């Protein structure tokens, strides 16, 4: 791991790169968090596999640099490398279930972000009143049933980090969703920050963005 250099390339927003950023910070693995603006992208795009971001450029001594694309493939690969993807089939399932639930929320929030003003108001109401509450309730139930601070009880996993990324966006779109009834989610976040000071340091200096 120490012989490799990592550069994560994405725009200056959280979005699809944020779970990867949190993963590397939680693992304590240094990486270059390369954030580009929209003016840089047209010139850079032809050199990027598939012409899409994020990508992770991995450089190892004596080897040709290699691009990894597709955000969730990158995240799952390095979650496994960092031993944050569970040790049993049941643990892996719990992580994947939580990622799936968060992914459902993420997709709806992206739709809200991209909508025009009139449609945005309608979608936000649907998200807040109909779509999100049941998923948030299921997530809280999973955390409560874990018997510990984390999704897997006493140990951090990629599921906890992905949850943090999603809930940061929920706080932008519908902050009142995470009220006192969602105490397990806040407790989980607090536990991650206690367990991984690198994550807390990163969050304190993270650029503010709407996505």
UniProtKB/TrEMBL annotation:
Sample GO molecular function, one term = glutathione transferase activity
SUPFAM superfamilies in UniProt: GST C-terminal domain-like, Thioredoxin-like
The source's domain of life comes to Eukaryota
Q: What Pfam families does its record include?
A: GST_C_3
Checking Gene3D superfamilies in the record gives: 1.20.1050.10, Glutaredoxin (3.40.30.10)
The record's annotation in InterPro entries points to:
Glutathione-S-Trfase_C-like, Glutathione-S-Trfase_C_sf, Glutathione_S-Trfase, Glutathione_S-Trfase_N, GST_C, GST_superfamily, Thioredoxin-like_sf
GO BP: glutathione metabolic process
Q: Kindly list any coiled-coil regions of this protein.
A: none
Every copy of the GST N-terminal domain together lies at 4-86
Xref: PANTHER family: GLUTATHIONE S-TRANSFERASE
Instruction: Describe the function of this protein.
Output: Conjugation of reduced glutathione to a wide number of exogenous and endogenous hydrophobic electrophiles.
Subunit structure and binding partners: Homodimer.
Q: Quote the protein name from its UniProt record.
A: Glutathione transferase
Q: Which species? A: Calicophoron daubneyi (Rumen fluke)
